[in-house]
Write a structure and sequence with these properties.
Pfam family, one: Glyoxalase_4
Strand content: 35-45%
Domain VOC: 4-132
CATH architecture: Roll
Strand order of the largest sheet: 2-3-4-1-5-8-7-6
Order of helices and strands: EHEEEHEHEEE
Protein name: Methylmalonyl-CoA epimerase
Family: Belongs to the methylmalonyl-CoA epimerase family.
CATH class: Alpha Beta
GO molecular function: methylmalonyl-CoA epimerase activity
Bound molecules: carboxymethyldethia coenzyme *A
Low-confidence stretches: none
CATH topology: 2,3-Dihydroxybiphenyl 1,2-Dioxygenase, domain 1
Length: 134
Amino acid sequence: MLTKINHIGIAVQSLADAVPFYRDNLGMAFMGTEEVAEQKVTVAFLQIGESKIELLEPTADDSPVAKFIEKNGAGIHHIAYEVEDIEAAIAKLTADGARMIDSVPRNGAHGARIAFIHPKTSRGVLTELCQMGH
Ligand code: CMX
Protein backbone atom coordinates (compact mmCIF):
# COMPACT_ATOMS: atom_id res chain seq x y z
CA MET A 1 0.00 0.00 0.00
CA LEU A 2 2.83 2.42 0.92
CA THR A 3 5.56 2.89 -1.66
CA LYS A 4 8.14 5.11 0.04
CA ILE A 5 8.71 7.93 2.49
CA ASN A 6 7.76 11.05 0.56
CA HIS A 7 8.84 13.52 3.23
CA ILE A 8 9.42 14.23 6.89
CA GLY A 9 7.71 17.37 8.18
CA ILE A 10 9.59 19.61 10.61
CA ALA A 11 7.78 22.44 12.38
CA VAL A 12 9.80 25.66 12.53
CA GLN A 13 9.11 29.15 13.82
CA SER A 14 10.58 30.79 10.74
CA LEU A 15 11.49 29.50 7.29
CA ALA A 16 13.82 32.46 6.79
CA ASP A 17 15.75 31.28 9.82
CA ALA A 18 15.58 27.51 9.20
CA VAL A 19 16.07 27.14 5.43
CA PRO A 20 19.72 28.34 5.34
CA PHE A 21 20.77 25.58 7.76
CA TYR A 22 19.16 22.78 5.76
CA ARG A 23 20.18 24.22 2.38
CA ASP A 24 23.64 25.63 3.08
CA ASN A 25 24.96 23.69 6.07
CA LEU A 26 23.41 20.28 5.38
CA GLY A 27 23.61 20.85 1.62
CA MET A 28 20.08 19.74 0.69
CA ALA A 29 18.65 20.85 -2.65
CA PHE A 30 16.15 23.66 -2.02
CA MET A 31 12.98 23.11 -4.07
CA GLY A 32 11.12 26.31 -3.20
CA THR A 33 8.35 27.41 -0.88
CA GLU A 34 4.58 27.22 -1.15
CA GLU A 35 1.68 28.44 0.96
CA VAL A 36 -0.82 25.70 1.79
CA ALA A 37 -3.74 27.91 2.81
CA GLU A 38 -5.99 24.98 3.74
CA GLN A 39 -3.43 23.87 6.35
CA LYS A 40 -2.47 27.41 7.47
CA VAL A 41 1.21 26.84 6.77
CA THR A 42 3.91 27.98 4.41
CA VAL A 43 6.22 25.10 3.54
CA ALA A 44 9.70 24.77 2.10
CA PHE A 45 10.79 21.51 0.45
CA LEU A 46 14.37 20.28 0.36
CA GLN A 47 15.28 17.14 -1.58
CA ILE A 48 17.41 14.44 0.02
CA GLY A 49 17.78 11.28 -2.09
CA GLU A 50 14.33 10.10 -3.13
CA SER A 51 12.73 11.79 -0.12
CA LYS A 52 12.24 15.35 1.03
CA ILE A 53 12.33 17.41 4.18
CA GLU A 54 9.32 19.72 4.52
CA LEU A 55 9.87 22.70 6.80
CA LEU A 56 6.54 24.05 8.06
CA GLU A 57 6.00 27.61 9.25
CA PRO A 58 2.54 28.44 10.65
CA THR A 59 0.65 31.31 9.00
CA ALA A 60 -1.98 31.75 11.75
CA ASP A 61 -2.21 31.31 15.51
CA ASP A 62 -4.82 28.56 15.07
CA SER A 63 -2.67 26.62 12.58
CA PRO A 64 -2.08 22.99 13.71
CA VAL A 65 1.63 23.73 13.39
CA ALA A 66 1.38 26.81 15.64
CA LYS A 67 -0.35 24.65 18.28
CA PHE A 68 2.36 22.00 17.91
CA ILE A 69 5.20 24.52 18.38
CA GLU A 70 3.45 26.09 21.37
CA LYS A 71 3.22 22.69 23.06
CA ASN A 72 6.50 21.06 21.99
CA GLY A 73 8.74 23.70 20.45
CA ALA A 74 10.13 23.24 16.94
CA GLY A 75 10.80 19.66 15.86
CA ILE A 76 9.63 16.66 13.87
CA HIS A 77 5.93 17.12 13.18
CA HIS A 78 4.94 14.25 10.86
CA ILE A 79 6.07 11.53 8.48
CA ALA A 80 4.46 11.30 5.05
CA TYR A 81 4.24 8.05 3.11
CA GLU A 82 3.42 7.91 -0.55
CA VAL A 83 0.51 5.75 -1.68
CA GLU A 84 -0.69 4.96 -5.18
CA ASP A 85 -4.40 5.05 -4.37
CA ILE A 86 -5.25 7.26 -1.40
CA GLU A 87 -8.98 6.38 -1.34
CA ALA A 88 -8.10 2.67 -1.15
CA ALA A 89 -5.55 3.33 1.59
CA ILE A 90 -8.08 5.34 3.65
CA ALA A 91 -10.72 2.64 3.18
CA LYS A 92 -8.35 -0.13 4.30
CA LEU A 93 -7.10 1.78 7.34
CA THR A 94 -10.64 2.71 8.35
CA ALA A 95 -11.73 -0.92 8.04
CA ASP A 96 -8.73 -1.87 10.20
CA GLY A 97 -9.94 0.50 12.92
CA ALA A 98 -7.43 3.32 12.40
CA ARG A 99 -8.50 6.78 13.54
CA MET A 100 -8.33 8.92 10.40
CA ILE A 101 -8.15 12.71 10.79
CA ASP A 102 -9.17 12.92 7.15
CA SER A 103 -11.66 10.39 5.84
CA VAL A 104 -11.66 12.27 2.54
CA PRO A 105 -8.40 13.42 0.92
CA ARG A 106 -7.58 17.12 0.98
CA ASN A 107 -5.15 19.30 -0.94
CA GLY A 108 -1.48 19.40 0.03
CA ALA A 109 1.57 21.05 -1.51
CA HIS A 110 2.57 20.34 -5.15
CA GLY A 111 -0.95 19.26 -6.09
CA ALA A 112 -0.72 16.18 -3.88
CA ARG A 113 -3.82 14.70 -2.27
CA ILE A 114 -3.23 14.03 1.40
CA ALA A 115 -4.89 12.45 4.43
CA PHE A 116 -3.66 12.34 8.03
CA ILE A 117 -3.82 9.43 10.47
CA HIS A 118 -4.22 10.50 14.10
CA PRO A 119 -1.02 10.15 16.15
CA LYS A 120 -2.89 8.03 18.73
CA THR A 121 -3.28 5.33 16.06
CA SER A 122 0.27 5.60 14.68
CA ARG A 123 1.85 5.29 18.13
CA GLY A 124 2.69 8.92 18.77
CA VAL A 125 3.65 9.94 15.23
CA LEU A 126 1.36 12.12 13.15
CA THR A 127 1.25 10.23 9.85
CA GLU A 128 0.36 11.53 6.42
CA LEU A 129 -0.62 9.57 3.35
CA CYS A 130 0.01 11.34 0.08
CA GLN A 131 -0.86 10.57 -3.48
CA MET A 132 1.19 12.62 -5.88
CA GLY A 133 -0.48 14.32 -8.83
CA HIS A 134 0.80 12.89 -12.11
N1 CMX B 1 2.83 14.52 16.43
C1 CMX B 1 2.59 13.69 17.47
N2 CMX B 1 1.61 13.88 18.37
C2 CMX B 1 0.86 14.98 18.21
C3 CMX B 1 1.04 15.90 17.16
C4 CMX B 1 2.09 15.63 16.25
N3 CMX B 1 2.34 16.46 15.22
N4 CMX B 1 0.13 16.87 17.27
C5 CMX B 1 -0.63 16.60 18.34
N5 CMX B 1 -0.19 15.46 18.91
C6 CMX B 1 -0.73 14.81 20.09
C7 CMX B 1 -0.95 15.78 21.22
O1 CMX B 1 0.26 15.97 21.92
C8 CMX B 1 -1.99 15.08 22.03
O2 CMX B 1 -1.39 14.11 22.82
P1 CMX B 1 -1.86 13.89 24.35
O3 CMX B 1 -3.33 13.60 24.28
O4 CMX B 1 -1.04 12.73 24.80
O5 CMX B 1 -1.54 15.18 25.03
C9 CMX B 1 -2.83 14.36 20.98
O6 CMX B 1 -2.01 14.31 19.81
C10 CMX B 1 -4.11 15.05 20.61
O7 CMX B 1 -3.84 16.38 20.55
P2 CMX B 1 -5.02 17.40 20.72
O8 CMX B 1 -4.56 18.54 21.53
O9 CMX B 1 -6.24 16.73 21.15
O10 CMX B 1 -5.31 17.79 19.26
P3 CMX B 1 -4.76 18.98 18.49
O11 CMX B 1 -5.82 20.01 18.47
O12 CMX B 1 -3.39 19.37 18.92
O13 CMX B 1 -4.68 18.35 17.04
C11 CMX B 1 -4.00 16.87 15.35
C12 CMX B 1 -3.74 17.35 16.77
C13 CMX B 1 -2.87 15.92 14.98
C14 CMX B 1 -5.35 16.16 15.33
C15 CMX B 1 -4.04 18.13 14.43
O14 CMX B 1 -2.80 18.82 14.52
C16 CMX B 1 -4.31 17.79 12.99
O15 CMX B 1 -5.44 17.62 12.57
N6 CMX B 1 -3.23 17.66 12.16
C17 CMX B 1 -3.37 17.34 10.75
C18 CMX B 1 -3.17 18.55 9.88
C19 CMX B 1 -1.80 19.12 9.99
O16 CMX B 1 -1.00 18.82 10.88
N7 CMX B 1 -1.45 20.01 9.03
C20 CMX B 1 -0.17 20.67 8.97
C21 CMX B 1 0.75 20.04 7.93
C22 CMX B 1 0.28 20.35 6.54
C23 CMX B 1 1.15 19.85 5.44
O17 CMX B 1 2.09 19.04 5.63
O18 CMX B 1 0.87 20.27 4.30
